[in-house]
Every structure is written in C-alpha cells, then in structure tokens.
Design brief:
Structural class: mainly beta
Largest sheet: 6 strands, antiparallel
Shape: globular
Number of helices: 1
Number of strands: 13
Order of helices and strands: EEEEEEEEEEEEEH
Radius of gyration: 17 Å
Helix content: under 10%
Oligomer: single chain
Length: 182
C-alpha cells in the first residue's frame, strides 16, 4: 500500500504469502505489534485495537507525521467479512528533531479500530499487513503481518482499547469551547 503524509511517500509490498496465517501479534526489529479483540457495538460493528510497543526511547508516527517521518500504511485486503476498518487516532505528541516537527507516539500506543462487517451475524477474520516507521535518531521501516478472528458476540478484556478511546481528540464544541468575538 502507498501512503502519503508530511510530504513523504512510503511504499511497502509483501513479497510472499506466509505458509500459515499470521498470528495476532508480531515482532519487528525495534517494536512489537498485536491485534486486540474488543467488543461488538449495538450497530453490529466490532471494536478492536492495534497495539504498537517500541523499544525504550523509540517512537512511531501519527497518520500525518509532520515535517518528516513515515506514515503508517494498512492493508486489510486479506480480511474476510469486512466492509471497512476505521482507524481511530489518539492525540499525538509533538517531537522536534533536527529542526523538524513530527507528530507521533513514544514507547507505546493502541490505535482503536472500528470494523464494519459485511454480515454482522457472521465472524470477521481480520488480516493485516502493516507498514510503519519507528525512529530513535533515524527512522527505520517495519512491516508486520497479523491475524485476528472476531466472532459476532466476542468480548475481551479491552482496557487498553478503552483507554486509547479516552485519548481521542474531541471537538471543541463538545468541550464547551466557543469562538470569542474581537
């Protein structure tokens, strides 16, 4: 998949299909990723999460990384019974490095996912090829493949997903803010 952000385009492709389906978690050279099961919504969607844990002192990037960095790229095309996957982004942190401002997450982040099934009564099989960058002094591309099956009524200990949802940016109007008159 190709992704653009902050003036940088990064493209990754998986060169071969693994013999067995990927596990729910994967380990890169400087990070670990995992798909987390959550809960079904009243509308029939499934809430899940993508956990990214990096080596101490390393960071990864927000959907728009800023002046530099590698934007994450998601390929859900191997999934079944999936109409759409919406990635929710907790508030990023600003980092200044070499005079450039970047946006992202240090050490660890959970990205909440809203998975819309084609048929809400049937199980969802998530298959993710995930390309992203992790950085300390320099950025290194990482790629992982993960899989997670979500039955229609599955409920898991979703504390990390709920905590990440609490960190989503909110509309100013929802917080009681209003524009002032000058």
């Amino acid at each position: 998949p190709a992704s653009a952000g902050g003036g940088l385009i990064a493209t990754w492709r998986v060169s071969q299909t693994p013999a067995a389906p990927p596990a729910p978690s994967a380990e890169g050279q400087r990070s670990r990723t995992a798909l987390l099961a959550g809960w079904p919504t009243a509308e029939g969607a499934r809430v899940a999460g993508l956990s990214i844990a990096m080596e101490p002192g390393w960071k990864t990037y927000w959907r728009v990384p800023g002046d530099a960095g590698i934007p994450p790229a998601f390929d859900w095309s191997g999934s079944t019974n999936v109409a759409a996957v919406a990635v929710r982004w907790p508030r990023p942190h600003a980092f200044e490095s070499f005079g450039m401002l970047t946006l992202g997450y240090k050490d660890a982040v959970v990205l909440p996912l809203e998975v819309t099934p084609i048929d809400p009564a049937k199980p969802v099989a998530l298959r993710l090829e995930f390309a992203y960058g992790v950085c300390s002094d320099i950025c290194m591309p990482e790629m992982t493949e993960m899989a997670l099956d979500l039955p229609p009524d599955a409920r898991a200990d979703a504390g990390p997903i709920r905590a990440a949802l609490a960190e989503l940016p909110r509309q100013a109007s929802a917080e009681g803010a209003a524009l002032g008159d000058c």
